[in-house]
Amino acid sequence: MNAITHSFQQFVELIFPRNCVVCGQKLIQHEEFLCLQCLLHLPRTNHHAVRENPMEQLFYGRVSVDRACAFFEFKKGSEYQNILHELKYRGQKELGSYMGKRFGMSLKKDNDLQSADYICPVPLHPKKERKRGYNQSFHIALGLSESLGIPLDNTNLIRATHTSTQTRKSRWERWQNVDGIFCLRDPTKFADKHLILVDDVVTTGATLEACATTIHGQCKARISVLTLAIA
Questions:
Q1: What's the number of domains the chain is made of?
Q2: In a shared domain, residues 17 and 72
Q3: 62 and 34 assigned to the same domain
Q4: What SS3 class is residue 147?
Q5: Which residues pair with 159 in a beta bridge?
Q6: Residue 33 belongs to what domain range?
Q7: Is 73 found in the same domain as 26?
Q8: Are residues 24 and 68 in the same domain?
Q9: In this structure, what DSSP letter does residue 125 have?
Q10: Which of 4, 70, 99, 112 keeps 20 to 30 A from 52, CA to CA?
């Protein structure tokens, strides 16, 4: 880095400081979004290393999924909830891609997941996506796709019905809110494929269940589920 470039970077960081989204400390060179300390202490679930892990158990008796893994545990009040807050409500869509890449790096040796044909983000209704400006699940899926080398498909699974937010709804209300709202544009594209559904956070699993149920109802496909966090 030459002196002019370095000086310009210092000037930009003076106006737009780069701080860790978790602890708020100033990031140093080569750190992105999270400082090394917060990245090291990220409460990882290591679900990928455990069969019948808590996330897989979440879908037992509800819908058939091959694998289900979350990257880290979400606990209300934890500083790490800032990751989801910044991603979902503060426009930090690049944070989603960064975390997706990090998640993907931990899954590279998982042969089952590496065998997937497509990575598919849980879609937002176009009206909601226009209001927010982006779909956070798409950016997580984008990072996973880059890290794992699996093609991304964000056009076949669509959200045909606009619904209210899932926040503060009970398990039953969440299921009612997403029942029958998804559909496939071309079921033949996913026929006999292994798909990875991607979302930002799983709480009751109602949204992912609705997506998987739609796909199973329209074509024969294997489905795995990855989320950034599990609450």
A1: 2
A2: no
A3: no
A4: helix
A5: 182
A6: 1-41
A7: no
A8: no
A9: P
A10: 99
Residue type, 194: H
Each of the 231 residues of the chain gets a pLDDT tens digit; together they read 565 554 545 544 555 589 999 999 999 988 999 999 999 999 999 999 999 999 999 999 999 999 999 999 998 889 999 999 999 999 999 999 999 999 999 999 999 999 999 999 999 988 989 999 999 999 999 999 999 999 999 999 999 876 656 555 565 555 555 667 899 999 999 999 999 999 999 999 999 999 999 999 999 999 999 999 999
Instruction: Tell me how far apart the alpha carbons of residues 225 and 33 are, in angstroms, rounded to a whole number.
Output: 25
Same domain, 20 and 78: no
Assign residue 155 the CATH number of its domain. Answer: 3.40.50.2020
pTM of the model: 0.87
Statement to judge: residues 216 and 120 lie in one domain: yes
In Å, how far are 4, 5, 18, 43 from 197, measured between CA atoms? 45, 41, 31, 22
Task: Note whether 37 and 53 are same-domain residues.
Answer: no
For residue 27, give the nearest of 43, 1, 9, 4 by alpha carbon. Answer: 9
Residues 118 and 55 reside in one and the same domain? yes
Detail the DSSP E strand segments found in 47-106: 68-73
Structure tokens at 37: 């300390």
Q: Tell me how far apart the alpha carbons of residues 30 and 18 are, in angstroms, rounded to a whole number.
A: 11
